[in-house]
Design goal:
alpha+beta; ten-stranded mixed sheet; 10 strands
């Protein structure tokens, strides 16, 4: 009788462990939806070359007033130079080249924190809209992935 109860307790403990472990492993690669508010804005690279900045927000904004909290992803290239369907490692820096861009999480104004191993892929870019996926490494065993669909803002900066 005691053996049977012990076996039942072990089976329950093992089942509970497997449930917890399987839900934990499913969260190792988190997919977080950001309410589909994405804004692609022309901007300037640090050396005054062409760039684009993608803002991913939790709430609706106007193109000329995007307020935190948001993710800010900048690519130091012209919009027409962005490859469709190719993943871009944003923080990859070649000693013979300048940085490809940067990515930050900005919970408040002037309080942005750089992200680890950011990557972006644009699946479609039209005259008015953009669609793709952004990801970064949150912890060694957890990557956050943000699919996005949004609008291209008409702002044209003067760089150079």
């Amino acid at each position: 009788m005691i053996q049977r109860q012990l076996l039942l307790i072990c089976a329950i403990a093992l089942t509970a462990f497997l449930l917890v472990f399987s839900s934990h492993s499913a969260n190792l690669q988190g997919r977080e939806q950001i309410n589909n508010h994405a804004y692609l804005v022309s901007s300037c690279a640090p050396w005054d070359g062409a760039a684009v900045t993608l803002y991913l927000t939790q709430k609706s904004n106007k193109c000329d007033r995007i307020s935190p909290p948001y993710y800010m992803i900048s690519l130091f290239r012209n919009l027409k130079e962005i490859p469709i369907g190719s993943e871009i490692k944003i923080d990859s820096i070649n000693p013979n080249q300048q940085s490809q861009g940067d990515a930050s999480k900005c919970p408040k104004p002037n309080a942005c924190q750089p992200l680890k191993q950011p990557r972006i892929r644009f699946d479609a870019i039209s005259a008015n809209s953009v669609r793709g996926e952004f990801s970064y490494q949150l912890m060694p065993d957890r990557q956050l992935i943000f699919p996005f669909t949004g609008k291209i803002c008409p702002y044209i900066p003067l760089c150079g």
